[in-house]
Amino acid sequence: MAEVFGPDWWLAINVDSHLDVRADQPRNSGTPYRQLLEEKLLRPEYFYEVAFQTHFCSPVYYSYIRDLGVNRISLETLRSRDEAGEEIKDRIRLKFINQSSSLNTFFGFDIDALRSADAPGTSAPSPLGRRAGEFITLVKYAASLSNTKIIRVQ
After folding, report:
1. Is residue 55 within 8 Å of 63, Cβ to Cβ?
2. In the chain, which residues have pLDDT < 50?
3. Tally of domains in the chain
4. ω into residue 44 within 30 of 0, thus cis?
């Protein structure tokens, strides 16, 4: 995405129970978004971490994305019905709608964002997570956007 469109013209959405911003060497499945951010191939304000489970996320890595200004919406916030949770969801949704109408979009969907009852074969199963129908709805939404260029499901 960065090679084709440049870092100023694309955004990434990571739907995953983990943040994937570990500071590991060599590169691995837990490091891709940190690499993109540190190599200036992805702007933090154009990056969305969605459906992460806070109990799976190191406070160090959460602070890292927060301090950079990455858009964050945890699984707990997605399920929240309180006013603060609704306000966060609305604000991030509106920002995403505005950006995705003018920027090329990449969606990364990790199956471990699903609850283990719906995806028992994941490498990091959890009884929490999105239901299969909710996950499929998100993938269909991603596919419906005219600026979506890549959808990766792993």
Report:
1. no
2. none
3. 1
4. no
Q: What is the per-residue pLDDT for 139?
A: 93
Using CA atoms, how far apart are residues 139 and 142, in angstroms rounded to an integer?
5
**Residue matched to tokens 């949770």:** 85
Q: Whose CA is closest to 65, among 116, 133, 14, 120?
A: 14
CATH number at 111 reads 3.40.800.10
With vertex at residue 90, the alpha carbon angle to CA 149 and CA 6, rounded to the nearest 5 degrees, is: 30
pLDDT at position 66 = 97
Q: Are 51 and 74 in contact (CB under 8 A)?
A: yes
Sign of CA dihedral 66, 20, 152, 140: negative
What domain range includes position 20? 2-153
Give the CA angle between residues 90, 93, 98 to the nearest 5°: 125
- Torsion angle, CA of 53/35/105/108, rounded to 10 degrees? -40
For residue 69 the two structure tokens come to 């200004």
